[in-house]
Structure formats: C-alpha cells, structure tokens
Design a protein that fits this description.
This is T-complex protein 1 subunit delta. It holds the Pfam family DUF4817. One of its GO terms (molecular function) is nucleic acid binding. The structure is a single chain. The protein is of the alpha+beta class. About 45% of the residues lie in helices and about 20% in strands. Strands 3-6-7 form a three-stranded antiparallel beta sheet, with no helix packed on it. A two-stranded antiparallel sheet has the order 1-4. Strand 6 and strand 7 form a beta hairpin. Helix 1 packs across helix 5. The chain is elongated, with a radius of gyration of 27 Å. The N and C termini lie far apart (about 70 Å).
Length: about 220
C-alpha cells in the first residue's frame, strides 16, 4: 500500500487523531519513523480538498478529475475493505469528500450493497428432527390419517422494540456476496402479529404482546 494512502486512510478511521494514526503506523510498519504531525495533517487536508494524494503538480494537471485518481480510489477501496458496513454518508464524512464523488468512485470500483443474512442458532439434531417430521407428515397424508381440508397454515411477524437488527436496511459493500451472518437472541423485547389461512379462509390478524405461547393460542382461538 502506498504510504500516503495509508496515512489518509488511518486519519479518516481515527477521526483525524494524529497520535492514533501514528500508532497504526507503528503496528503496520513495526517502526516509529512515522511522518510528523504536521505532515500527516497537511496530507489529509490536501486529500479532503482535492480528492488526491498525488503531488500538487500532478494533481493540478488532472484537476477536473481529482476525485477519481488512482490514489483516491485506493483510499476508498481500502476503507470499505476494512469497514464494509459503513454507510456511504458516514464514509464520505470520514474521508472528507463529497457523497456524489464517493458514489462515483464506488461505482468505478464495482462496489455493490448486499443484505446481511440473519440466522438463528441451531442445534446439531435440528436437521434430523425436521427430516423425520416431514417424512411422518407425508405418510399421514398418503394414508388419509390427516384431512388436507383441516390443515391451517399460520405465520407471524415480530416487531422488536429494543433496537434489534433490521436486515431490510442493513447492507455491506463489496464486489461479491460474502457469507456474513449475525446471530441474534430468539427472545428480544417485541410484539407479534399472527395470521392463519386454510381452505375456509383467513383467520386474523391477531396482535400479541410478547411471545406466542399455548396460553395466547387458547385465548384467541376461544
């Protein structure tokens, strides 16, 4: 990585804290021969002003396209490689460039937003139990032990009240889809909306405060 790009990237990540950027330098290069405070501050200020880490003469020659120089693109690429969940608005603020310029660079880098996948923790025997249940139901349907007309299909949606992760507006930036998952508790503070459907029609919706328990089932089925 170009040293100037590294300095700009660390200054952005550290909210322009030169001491923190110098510590990052030491961890990266294993020495304390870092540029002085003034040099780091001036380089970052120049990047915010011109969108380039190149020398002034070279930057002036390409003044009409400074935000898409190779140095600027490398800064953006490295930034999202290290922090792919950062929003475009916040990234533009941290890097000190216009949001439209950042979006243009991201487009050239072929960065796209992807949804994060939220999963529930599963025990080792869950797959086997699901398979056994499916096989049992198929056998009962084939023998007529279960009347299809008496089957109700139900579903529910939880609305959390404690800042639970909403996967609909959570994105990460990258050139390809990554297997990123977040494990969350099965019992956050929430309320539930339940509904069912069968050959007889739709039943619901039912609003439930808390979890769907046997007591709640009996309450709205009576």
């Amino acid at each position: 990585m170009d040293i100037r790009v590294f300095i700009v990237l660390q200054m952005a990540r550290c909210d322009e804290n030169v001491k923190a950027a110098q510590r990052a330098w030491q961890e990266k290069f294993h020495n304390k021969n870092w540029p002085n405070k003034r040099t780091m501050a001036r380089l970052y200020a120049k990047f915010k002003r011109t969108g380039s880490v190149e020398d002034d003469k070279k930057a002036m020659a390409t003044a009409t396209a400074t935000v898409v120089t190779d140095g600027a693109k490398q800064v953006v690429d490295d930034f999202f490689a290290a922090d792919p969940t950062r929003s475009v608005r916040r990234a533009a603020e941290m890097l000190g460039i216009k949001r439209t310029s950042l979006q243009r660079i991201m487009k050239e880098l072929k960065l796209s937003p992807y949804k994060i996948q939220v999963t529930q923790p599963l025990n080792e025997d869950h797959t086997q139990r699901q398979s056994e249940f499916a096989q049992l139901m198929l056998e009962k349907l084939q023998t007529g032990e279960i009347d299809v007309k008496k089957i109700w299909f139900s579903n529910e949606a939880y609305f959390t009240l404690d800042g639970h992760l909403n996967k609909q507006n959570y994105r990460y930036w990258g050139r390809e889809r990554l297997e990123i998952t977040v494990v969350r508790s099965l019992h956050p503070k929430k309320f539930l909306v339940w509904c069912a459907i069968s050959s007889h029609g739709v039943f619901g919706p039912i609003f439930i405060d808390g979890n769907l328990s046997a007591a709640n089932y009996r309450k709205f089925l009576d």
